[in-house]
What we know:
Elements: E1 14-17, H1 18-37, E2 47-50, E3 56-59, H2 62-68, H3 74-90, H4 94-113, H5 118-139, H6 148-159, H7 169-182, E4 184-185, E5 188-189, E6 194-200, E7 208-210, E8 212-215, E9 227-236, H8 256-279, E10 284-287, H9 293-301, E11 305-307, H10 312-322, E12 326-327, E13 339-349, E14 352-360, E15 366-372, H11 375-397, E16 401-403, H12 407-420, H13 427-438, H14 440-449, H15 453-467, E17 471-475, E18 478-482, H16 484-487, E19 490-492, H17 493-511, E20 515-518
Parallel strand pairs: 6-15, 9-10, 9-12, 10-11
Antiparallel strand pairs: 1-20, 2-3, 4-5, 7-15, 8-14, 9-13, 13-14, 16-19, 17-18
Helix pairs in contact: 1-3, 1-4, 2-3, 3-4, 3-17, 4-13, 4-17, 5-12, 5-13, 5-17, 6-7, 6-11, 7-11, 8-9, 12-13, 14-15
Amino acid sequence: MGGQPMFILSEDTQRTRGQDAQSSNIAAGKAVSQAVRTTLGPRGMDKMLVSDAGDVVITNDGATILGEMDIEHPAAQMIVEVAETQEDEVGDGTTTAAVLSGQLLAKAENLLDDDVHPTTIVEGYNEAAALANEAVEGLVLDVDDLDDDRLRAVARTSMTGKGTGDVNAEALAETVVDAVRQVEGDDGVARNEISVRTQTGAASSATELVEGVISEEEPVREDMPTSVEDASIAVLDVEFDIRESSVDAEYDVTNIDQLNAALDAEEKQFKQYAEKLADLDVDVAFVTESIEDRAAASLAEEGILAFESVGDDEAKSITQVTGASRVGAIDDLESDDLGNAESVSVESYGDDDLAFVEGGAAAESVTVFARGSTDHVTDELERALNDGLDVVTAALDAGGVVPGGGASEIAIADHIRDRAASIEGRRQLAVEAFADAIDVLPRTLAENTGMDPIDALVDLRSRHDSEGRAGIISEGQTGQVTDPVEAGVFDPAAVKYEALESATEAATMIVRIDDVISADN
Length: 521
């Protein structure tokens, strides 16, 4: 080759290798973690996020914060993915997962500075994560104790500290548990049958549970009924318009009588549509296609409340609640296809009309109708309610609950340290570092609650050793170390499992990277 160098990368390619690559990636991951750390716990602070377009989001929800941030660094994006995975899998604990990821990276950075090989760190972290899962299994409280009171405590723990307007987490927790119990069956909780609908114009305390669905569609005519009791309901995938002929033909209209005859024929067809529904005693029709004005007039004359252009998801929900079957042609509609609801009513909220379909015969869907004085309040209330619904579902379907308030993390770290002595070689250093990283969660809770984090951590460990369980409970302007079970503070075990797994995977993946190759655009 004559000593000529071989170039396999473009001249514009940027490459960072070795310690520089590791330091850059770890710094990016730690920065993302720090961005959400102050939002952790019941006294966590909010973040205001302003987009390029001037849209404002105010929240302390970790997944929302990281999702709204304009993050470009690939390692930082991996921490964002940790939060997204946590949100998708269990619906809560996103801040916990992000903060833990950052602290695992910080501890790994110290080990790298001490010449511990990245592979050794990865092996130690994975071993420690397995020990952490062991600890969580031992912390799970008796599943038989998951009565409504404890489920309300789980929901309240999740929502405390969220922006919920003038309503406290206790009241919202009752609504959340009622909603979950409504869709609970032999196969578990049908979480997708619970929806949250927001509407501004009232205080948050007006939030209520609707045993049915709420549609944003408006009646096609103002002279239609706005309230129907014991309603017979049809769901139609039909366009209420003149039937098109299958024959390509033209009609030559030469005088006014012929035009009137054509219009009368159309009018008759529209009346036939309405008469067909009336003969079947249909009170309300939800139509996924459009309804021509004259057809709408005929329906109104028959006293039928009709909605057009109903979305597919709403039509599906209505069928599930009322027991109706979706029909693709009016001529095919039969009485067996109809559903039933205790009431269908149209309510006005400012310029918006909402249709409430309540007390359906099938009653497989419920809606939490969240109210708020502003869009920012209702948006944050919606996030809090969804978190509450998710954690109660996880508690029932995915492994029960564990003590909250940092008590589980103290127990996890203690268990890992006890077992670390039996691990040979430098992996022991990584295992111990993992336990130290876990401590950041109760420390952060204490700091955000107004306590001295060092003193609080010492008190937590001391009480854990002496009494077997200790957590940080927010009280007034500060907090206290006490038994979280007695205080009614719980977390779903699934949240702990998922946070440990996703944070460990992200941290170990970043630690193993020693070469970053990027194209310069």
